[in-house]
Amino acid sequence: MLPSTTSTPWKKSLHHCAWLALMILLQLLITLFLNDSLHPLFLHWESAAAACKHGRIYVYDLPPILNKDLLHNYHAVSNGGLGPPATGLDAAVPLSLSAAWYWTDMYAAEVIYHDRINSYRCTTSNPAQAAAFYIPFYAGLAVRNYLFSNSTAKDRDRHAAAMLNWVKNQPAWRNSNGSDHFLMLGRLTWAFRRLTDNDTEWGSSLLYMPLMKNVLRLTVERFRWDSLEFSVPYPTAFHPRSESDIRQWQAWIRASQRSSLFTFVGATRERIRNDFRSILMEYCKKETSSCRVVDCSETHCSDGAPAILEAFLGSDFCLQPKGDGLTRRSMYDCMLAGSIPVYFWRGSFEYQYEWHLPKNASEYSIFIDNDIVRNDTSIIKRTLDKYSKEEVMRMRGRIIEFLPKFLYSKPNANLGGIEDAFDIAMDGVLKRFEQQTRLMDASKENKEH
């Protein structure tokens, strides 16, 4: 028979030592806490938990062919999507802010979001702890090389199909059928809504692929009838490094001397019948006392070029016709300079950017229906002349107030308590999934009762 160990003296001694050590450790922790030695650490834990109260995001590590490989030899999306450092802005930007400006491509957001999320505070490496799953697929870059060539529909769908084939086999996807997954589309939604397999039809059919039916999408212009789509701001050229950068730029545009009533930056599109841009261009070139023109058929205009910034900084209002869709990157370049956008289509602001811009567009913009302008272009100046200096200052002040919400800061920037466009988008995604989970739980509970 084996001897009993419960009464062995050395075992009792060991138990007493363990209890004594535990009591000493507990007293030490209490003493340190009362002396504030551990208090900052506890505050850090509480702060981190509060910052991520809506949940955390798991980032898939996709095969490189679906993202990183698409960056090869594409300088426009270097530096984590920000593009090459900007030059030639000495006359428009304070010297202390010049390092925060880049020639950022209007369709670079999918790269910017991927780069930013890698340092985002609310991510997790444990899928079991995630409330949302981010698919870092560069859908816009994948289709870009095929949009303006003699490609087939199959060519334009190849990367999208490969992405879905990969992600459908992931455990988290199988658990939810993709309903807690999201991705960022760098191009307008229309580039991913091809309806047929006809090779002559535009774009990819990504958004109509069956496996995408539950996936939430962020895009620079959304389809208003799609409840799973949310628009986020186009990237501009300014990427602040700190709260100080933002405050300095806000003061700069508030103090800017504006000699023109309004400006138009753009190029005519002769292939489009009754091109509205041509109407604006012709009108502005005649209305030289009030309108400042930057004709992009004669001047370099891409990615926030100096001529664009200087024109917007020197004008109270900026004319914003439709772009490739109902919206355009120029509306953000305009507001970045403290100029007040003038829209001609309601779709340019209604049902767009609801997380980032004020719900009441009249607080920061003017609307003149394009049909009225086609009949009488002089309505533009007559309408803008009606606004008093105080009203213009108030609208500009509103833009300056919400300006940080449409900026994309540099990775690891210290913005203090300010949330930029990326932070707001991630918060919106997590809140959406949190609400979705709550509704599903309530529905399940009702069925059980």
UniProtKB/TrEMBL annotation:
A single MF term (Gene Ontology): galactosyltransferase activity
Compartment(s) of residence: Golgi apparatus membrane
GO cellular component: Golgi membrane
Pfam families, per database record: Exostosin_GT47
GO process terms (BP): xyloglucan biosynthetic process
Tree of life domain: Eukaryota
InterPro entries reported for this sequence: Exostosin, Exostosin_GT47
Residue ranges of domain Exostosin GT47 in the record: 52-381
Keyword Ribonucleoprotein: no
Keyword terms: Glycosyltransferase, Golgi apparatus, Signal-anchor, Transferase, Transmembrane
Membrane topology per record: Single-pass type II membrane protein
Family: Belongs to the glycosyltransferase 47 family.
The name this protein goes by in its record: Exostosin GT47 domain-containing protein
